[in-house]
Amino acid sequence: MCPRRRVESGRNRAMSPILEVDGLMKSFVKKRNVFGLPAERTHAVKDVSFTLEKGRTRAIVGESGAGKSTVGRMVLRLAVPDEGSIRLFGDSILEMSAAQARKLRRRATMIFQDPFNSLDPRMLIGESVAEPLVLHTSLDRGGRERKVAELLERVGLRKDQIEKYPHEFSGGQLQRIAIARALATEPELIVCDEPVAALDVSIQAQVLNLLQDLQSERQISYVFISHDLALVKMFAHDVTVMRRGEIVESGPTEQIFDDPRETYTKELLSAMPVMNPRRRASRSKTVVTPSS
Ligand SMILES: Nc1ncnc2c1ncn2[C@@H]1O[C@H](COP(=O)(O)OP(=O)(O)O)[C@@H](O)[C@H]1O
Ligand SMILES: [Mg+2]
User: Where is the ABC transporter domain (predicted)?
Assistant: First the structure.
């Protein structure tokens, strides 16, 4: 541990970030020449930096192709940056051994947009939720059964739904199950990649409310990837706006929405339907507000 962090770990510990991302770069090969060598590259992420504190939510917003998912994947070491550093819980994840990175899976995990794809269709719900417990804990069968029942109950499902298959559930229920699975190892960070984008608007608020309650209860930190500014406004404490791989601007949610500095952010906001005051009144009943 470097001296600076040791000093921070004293009185200000609660405020020191659990995630520090600095100067991330990532490109992909877009086209290869006749020899199979890279001919053209996509610069998916260019010099992206941000921090996230314990129990807080940082939204990453931007249009499709902005590089949001690539950033989320790199944070969990599911993709390796070409340059830059990522410190998670104080440790540099890029310098970790594979064994250390596996341990990290327990503390940091991901929820995806499409719960139909993130759950194995041939596995019973109970098995899917128990899987991380098998991989990352020493709980025996009885312990796993109790934990799975408790998790499903917490996300609003019934115990007897353990012995059903994914196709027997609605999209909203499946996302709750995916959340139960993500919670199994008691993570401190969850990267949520468009977690409600595939759901009906009426169900979106319920799932976001659940995520927010879990955050208050367990001090979970979220990286919340979304293209939906109305949801971001209600859900996030801080916002990072990305465009074509780069950060356009970053700041507390209030500042980004009430006093955006950059033209691109202003354009994004002006395209947001909820900014119309007549609609805002009806929307605000169904959406959540960030707990600070
Ligand atoms: N595995 C990959 N291989 C090649 N190109 C990729 C890969 N992942 C992402 N990209 C490209 O990187 C850019 C950013 O993608 P992504 O991070 O998925 O953006 P977003 O999540 O904001 O829609 C896009 O141009 C995309 O096509
Ligand atoms: Mg994406």
Answer: 29-269
**Cα distance between residue 166 and residue 125, in whole Å:** 7
In a 3-state reduction of DSSP, which class is residue 140? coil
**pLDDT tens-digit series, residues 233-284:** 999 999 999 999 999 999 999 999 999 999 999 999 998 775 444 444 443 4
Q: What separation in Å is there between the alpha carbon of 282 and the centre of ligand 1?
A: 35
Domain locations in the chain? 16-273
Instruction: Compute the distance between CA of residue 260 and CA of residue 165 in angstroms, rounded to an integer.
Output: 46
According to CATH, the topology of domain 16-273 is Rossmann fold (3.40.50)
Do the strands 246-252 and 238-243 form a parallel or antiparallel pair, or are they unpaired? antiparallel
26 lines ligand 1 (CB under 6 A): no
Find the Cα–Cα–Cα–Cα dihedral 152, 108, 216, 147, rounded to 10°.
Answer: 30
* Closest to 198 measured CA to CA, from 207, 190, 189: 207
C-beta of 66 in contact with ligand 1 (< 6 A): yes
Among candidates 22, 28, 42, which has minimal Cα distance to 83? Answer: 22
